[in-house]
Amino acid sequence: MTEASLRDRIGARLRSNKVAILVAVVVVLMLNEIDRIAAPLGIPIAVLFIWFVLWVSRAGWSDVGMRRPKNWITTIGIGIGVALFLQAVALFVLVPTMQRFGVQLPDLSRFESIRGNIPMLLLWLVVAWTTAGFGEEIIWRGFVMSRVARVLGDSKAAWVFSLILASVLFGLLHIYQGTVGVVLTGVSGLVFGILYLASGRNLWAPIIAHGTKDTLAFLMIYTGLWERLT
User: Fold this and answer.
1) Distances in whole angstroms, Cα of residue 128 to Cα of each of 125, 171, 213
2) Nearest Cα to Cα of residue 41 among 55, 49, 50, 31
3) 221: which residues sit within 8 A by CB, 6+ positions away?
4) Which residues have CB under 8 Å from 128's CB, separation 6+?
5) Interior angle at CA 87, CA 82 and CA 92, nearest 5
6) Which of 15, 36, 75, 93 is most exposed, with the fewest beta carbons within 10 Å of its own?
Protein backbone atom coordinates (compact mmCIF):
# COMPACT_ATOMS: atom_id res chain seq x y z
CA MET A 1 0.00 0.00 0.00
CA THR A 2 1.50 3.34 -1.08
CA GLU A 3 1.99 5.88 1.69
CA ALA A 4 -0.05 9.06 1.23
CA SER A 5 1.93 12.11 0.14
CA LEU A 6 2.45 15.08 2.47
CA ARG A 7 -0.01 17.05 0.37
CA ASP A 8 -2.70 14.40 0.77
CA ARG A 9 -2.11 14.10 4.51
CA ILE A 10 -2.42 17.87 5.01
CA GLY A 11 -5.38 17.98 2.63
CA ALA A 12 -7.19 15.24 4.52
CA ARG A 13 -6.91 17.23 7.73
CA LEU A 14 -8.10 20.43 6.08
CA ARG A 15 -11.11 18.58 4.68
CA SER A 16 -12.27 16.75 7.79
CA ASN A 17 -10.33 17.71 10.93
CA LYS A 18 -12.38 20.36 12.74
CA VAL A 19 -9.42 21.90 14.54
CA ALA A 20 -7.41 22.17 11.31
CA ILE A 21 -10.36 23.74 9.50
CA LEU A 22 -10.85 26.33 12.25
CA VAL A 23 -7.11 27.12 12.31
CA ALA A 24 -7.28 27.78 8.56
CA VAL A 25 -10.25 30.10 9.12
CA VAL A 26 -8.38 32.01 11.84
CA VAL A 27 -5.31 32.39 9.58
CA VAL A 28 -7.49 33.79 6.79
CA LEU A 29 -9.17 36.27 9.15
CA MET A 30 -5.81 37.41 10.54
CA LEU A 31 -4.50 37.99 7.02
CA ASN A 32 -7.69 39.86 6.15
CA GLU A 33 -7.20 42.14 9.16
CA ILE A 34 -3.60 42.91 8.17
CA ASP A 35 -5.04 44.56 5.07
CA ARG A 36 -6.82 47.10 7.29
CA ILE A 37 -4.13 47.92 9.83
CA ALA A 38 -0.82 47.61 7.99
CA ALA A 39 -0.65 46.81 4.30
CA PRO A 40 -2.99 46.55 1.31
CA LEU A 41 -1.74 43.05 0.57
CA GLY A 42 -3.56 41.28 3.39
CA ILE A 43 -6.64 40.28 1.37
CA PRO A 44 -4.65 39.05 -1.69
CA ILE A 45 -2.42 36.99 0.61
CA ALA A 46 -5.52 35.59 2.35
CA VAL A 47 -6.95 34.58 -1.04
CA LEU A 48 -3.60 32.99 -1.92
CA PHE A 49 -3.74 31.02 1.34
CA ILE A 50 -7.27 29.88 0.46
CA TRP A 51 -5.92 28.70 -2.91
CA PHE A 52 -3.27 26.71 -1.01
CA VAL A 53 -5.93 25.12 1.20
CA LEU A 54 -7.95 24.17 -1.88
CA TRP A 55 -4.86 22.85 -3.65
CA VAL A 56 -3.71 20.57 -0.84
CA SER A 57 -7.32 19.43 -0.40
CA ARG A 58 -7.47 18.61 -4.13
CA ALA A 59 -10.50 20.88 -4.43
CA GLY A 60 -11.16 23.59 -7.00
CA TRP A 61 -12.45 27.13 -6.63
CA SER A 62 -15.95 25.74 -7.04
CA ASP A 63 -15.56 24.45 -3.47
CA VAL A 64 -15.90 28.06 -2.25
CA GLY A 65 -18.58 29.04 -4.74
CA MET A 66 -16.59 30.26 -7.74
CA ARG A 67 -18.72 28.54 -10.35
CA ARG A 68 -20.23 29.80 -13.57
CA PRO A 69 -23.80 30.93 -12.82
CA LYS A 70 -26.70 29.40 -14.71
CA ASN A 71 -27.63 32.76 -16.22
CA TRP A 72 -25.21 35.68 -16.33
CA ILE A 73 -27.83 38.32 -17.13
CA THR A 74 -30.03 37.28 -14.21
CA THR A 75 -27.04 37.09 -11.87
CA ILE A 76 -25.77 40.54 -12.87
CA GLY A 77 -29.27 42.01 -12.60
CA ILE A 78 -29.82 40.55 -9.14
CA GLY A 79 -26.38 41.73 -7.96
CA ILE A 80 -26.98 45.30 -9.14
CA GLY A 81 -30.51 45.32 -7.73
CA VAL A 82 -29.33 44.14 -4.32
CA ALA A 83 -26.59 46.81 -4.31
CA LEU A 84 -29.12 49.56 -5.08
CA PHE A 85 -31.42 48.22 -2.37
CA LEU A 86 -28.64 48.15 0.23
CA GLN A 87 -27.51 51.68 -0.63
CA ALA A 88 -31.07 52.99 -0.35
CA VAL A 89 -31.65 51.23 2.99
CA ALA A 90 -28.37 52.60 4.33
CA LEU A 91 -29.08 56.19 3.26
CA PHE A 92 -32.77 56.49 4.02
CA VAL A 93 -33.34 54.02 6.87
CA LEU A 94 -30.27 52.89 8.84
CA VAL A 95 -28.23 56.11 8.93
CA PRO A 96 -31.17 58.43 9.78
CA THR A 97 -32.41 56.01 12.45
CA MET A 98 -29.04 55.81 14.16
CA GLN A 99 -28.59 59.58 13.91
CA ARG A 100 -31.80 60.02 15.89
CA PHE A 101 -30.17 58.06 18.69
CA GLY A 102 -27.10 60.29 18.60
CA VAL A 103 -24.83 57.88 16.73
CA GLN A 104 -22.24 59.69 14.61
CA LEU A 105 -21.97 59.19 10.85
CA PRO A 106 -19.45 56.55 9.67
CA ASP A 107 -15.84 57.70 9.64
CA LEU A 108 -14.96 57.76 5.94
CA SER A 109 -11.75 59.76 6.33
CA ARG A 110 -9.83 56.83 4.84
CA PHE A 111 -11.50 57.67 1.53
CA GLU A 112 -11.21 61.47 1.72
CA SER A 113 -8.68 61.51 -1.13
CA ILE A 114 -11.44 60.40 -3.54
CA ARG A 115 -13.38 63.67 -3.30
CA GLY A 116 -13.16 65.44 -6.68
CA ASN A 117 -10.09 63.37 -7.62
CA ILE A 118 -10.66 61.20 -10.70
CA PRO A 119 -7.35 59.24 -10.52
CA MET A 120 -8.03 58.33 -6.86
CA LEU A 121 -11.63 57.47 -7.69
CA LEU A 122 -10.47 55.09 -10.42
CA LEU A 123 -7.91 53.55 -8.07
CA TRP A 124 -10.54 52.89 -5.41
CA LEU A 125 -12.94 51.49 -8.00
CA VAL A 126 -10.27 48.94 -8.90
CA VAL A 127 -10.01 48.12 -5.19
CA ALA A 128 -13.82 47.85 -5.00
CA TRP A 129 -13.89 45.11 -7.61
CA THR A 130 -10.69 43.24 -6.69
CA THR A 131 -9.85 43.13 -2.99
CA ALA A 132 -13.40 44.03 -1.88
CA GLY A 133 -15.75 42.50 -4.44
CA PHE A 134 -13.75 39.38 -5.30
CA GLY A 135 -11.39 39.11 -2.34
CA GLU A 136 -13.75 39.72 0.55
CA GLU A 137 -16.52 37.58 -0.92
CA ILE A 138 -14.14 34.66 -1.45
CA ILE A 139 -12.88 35.09 2.12
CA TRP A 140 -16.12 35.75 4.01
CA ARG A 141 -18.89 34.03 2.11
CA GLY A 142 -16.95 31.43 0.15
CA PHE A 143 -14.41 30.31 2.76
CA VAL A 144 -15.38 31.41 6.27
CA MET A 145 -19.07 30.56 5.94
CA SER A 146 -18.49 27.22 4.23
CA ARG A 147 -15.79 26.10 6.69
CA VAL A 148 -17.73 27.09 9.80
CA ALA A 149 -20.77 25.26 8.42
CA ARG A 150 -18.61 22.22 7.66
CA VAL A 151 -17.26 22.13 11.22
CA LEU A 152 -20.83 22.26 12.54
CA GLY A 153 -22.03 19.42 10.34
CA ASP A 154 -23.23 21.10 7.13
CA SER A 155 -26.83 21.20 8.35
CA LYS A 156 -29.27 24.05 7.67
CA ALA A 157 -28.76 25.25 11.24
CA ALA A 158 -24.99 25.17 10.71
CA TRP A 159 -25.30 27.38 7.63
CA VAL A 160 -27.59 29.82 9.44
CA PHE A 161 -25.08 30.06 12.30
CA SER A 162 -22.17 30.53 9.89
CA LEU A 163 -24.13 33.26 8.08
CA ILE A 164 -24.77 35.17 11.31
CA LEU A 165 -21.24 34.69 12.64
CA ALA A 166 -19.57 35.79 9.39
CA SER A 167 -21.87 38.84 9.13
CA VAL A 168 -21.17 39.95 12.70
CA LEU A 169 -17.40 39.54 12.32
CA PHE A 170 -17.49 41.25 8.92
CA GLY A 171 -19.17 44.25 10.53
CA LEU A 172 -16.89 44.34 13.59
CA LEU A 173 -13.76 44.32 11.43
CA HIS A 174 -14.96 47.62 9.95
CA ILE A 175 -14.80 49.25 13.40
CA TYR A 176 -12.49 51.93 11.97
CA GLN A 177 -15.64 53.39 10.33
CA GLY A 178 -17.35 53.83 13.70
CA THR A 179 -20.60 52.36 15.01
CA VAL A 180 -22.63 53.23 11.92
CA GLY A 181 -19.95 51.70 9.71
CA VAL A 182 -20.04 48.46 11.73
CA VAL A 183 -23.84 48.27 11.41
CA LEU A 184 -23.88 49.09 7.69
CA THR A 185 -21.17 46.60 6.78
CA GLY A 186 -22.68 43.96 9.08
CA VAL A 187 -26.06 44.31 7.37
CA SER A 188 -24.37 44.25 3.96
CA GLY A 189 -22.48 41.09 4.93
CA LEU A 190 -25.74 39.48 6.04
CA VAL A 191 -27.42 40.32 2.74
CA PHE A 192 -24.41 39.13 0.71
CA GLY A 193 -24.45 35.89 2.70
CA ILE A 194 -28.17 35.35 2.09
CA LEU A 195 -27.57 36.05 -1.60
CA TYR A 196 -24.75 33.49 -1.61
CA LEU A 197 -27.01 30.83 -0.11
CA ALA A 198 -30.00 31.75 -2.30
CA SER A 199 -27.77 31.42 -5.37
CA GLY A 200 -26.95 27.82 -4.49
CA ARG A 201 -23.71 28.86 -2.72
CA ASN A 202 -22.50 30.62 -5.86
CA LEU A 203 -20.35 33.70 -5.27
CA TRP A 204 -21.01 35.64 -8.45
CA ALA A 205 -24.19 37.43 -7.35
CA PRO A 206 -22.67 38.64 -4.04
CA ILE A 207 -19.45 39.62 -5.83
CA ILE A 208 -21.41 41.80 -8.26
CA ALA A 209 -23.57 43.20 -5.44
CA HIS A 210 -20.50 43.98 -3.30
CA GLY A 211 -18.55 45.61 -6.12
CA THR A 212 -21.55 47.64 -7.28
CA LYS A 213 -22.39 48.83 -3.75
CA ASP A 214 -18.82 50.01 -3.16
CA THR A 215 -18.80 51.67 -6.59
CA LEU A 216 -21.95 53.63 -5.69
CA ALA A 217 -20.44 54.63 -2.34
CA PHE A 218 -17.21 55.88 -3.93
CA LEU A 219 -19.13 57.83 -6.57
CA MET A 220 -21.15 59.48 -3.82
CA ILE A 221 -17.97 60.44 -1.95
CA TYR A 222 -16.38 61.73 -5.17
CA THR A 223 -19.34 63.98 -5.98
CA GLY A 224 -20.03 65.03 -2.38
CA LEU A 225 -23.49 63.48 -2.60
CA TRP A 226 -22.93 61.43 0.56
CA GLU A 227 -22.55 64.58 2.69
CA ARG A 228 -25.57 66.26 1.08
CA LEU A 229 -27.81 63.25 1.69
CA THR A 230 -26.67 62.61 5.25
Assistant:
1) 5, 17, 9
2) 31
3) 108, 111, 114, 115
4) 211, 214, 215, 218
5) 125
6) 93
* CA-wise closest residue to 10 among 46, 52, 45, 48: 52
DSSP-based three-state secondary structure for 153? coil
Angle at 150 between CA 147 and CA 154, to 5 degrees: 135
Identity at 63, one-letter amino acid code: D
Alpha carbon dihedral 85, 88, 92, 95, in 10-degree steps, equals 90
Say if residue 1's pLDDT is above 50.
Answer: no
CA distance 187 to 67: 25
Q: Buried (b) or exposed (e) across 29-51, using 16+ Cβ within 10 A?
A: bebbebbeeeeeebbbbbbebbe
pLDDT in tens, 74-121: 999 999 999 999 999 998 998 888 888 887 777 777 788 899 899 999
Count of H-run helices and E-run strands, the chain:
11, 0
Q: What is the pTM of this model?
A: 0.91
d(CA 227, CA 21): 43
Rounded Cα–Cα distance for residues 60 and 52 (Å)? 10
